[in-house]
Amino acid sequence: MSYYEFKHPMSDRLTDEKWGEMVDSESIPEQPNWIEEIKGCR
């Protein structure tokens, strides 16, 4: 599974569709460094 953090105001709740558009966009944020440790624990 992928992990991404999007900074988004709490006052503007995302729908599933809006979230999907953000994840599918080409401007996704970089994954945090600690996610690499989890990826290796399969």
Topology (SSEs and partners):
Layout: H1 16-24, H2 35-39
Explain what this protein looks like in three dimensions.
The longest helix has 9 residues, at 16-24. The protein has helices spanning 16-24, 35-39. The model has no long low-confidence stretch (mean pLDDT 79). With 42 residues, it is mainly α. The radius of gyration is 12 Å and the shape is elongated.
Biggest sheet features:
none
Using the alpha-carbon principal axes, give the shape. Answer: elongated
Could you state the order of secondary-structure elements as H and E?
Answer: HH
Strand content: under 5%
Terminal residue distance: 11 Å
What structural category characterises the helix and strand content?
mainly alpha
The count of β-strands is: 0
Task: Name some characteristics of this structure.
42 residues; mainly alpha; 2 helices; 33% helix; elongated
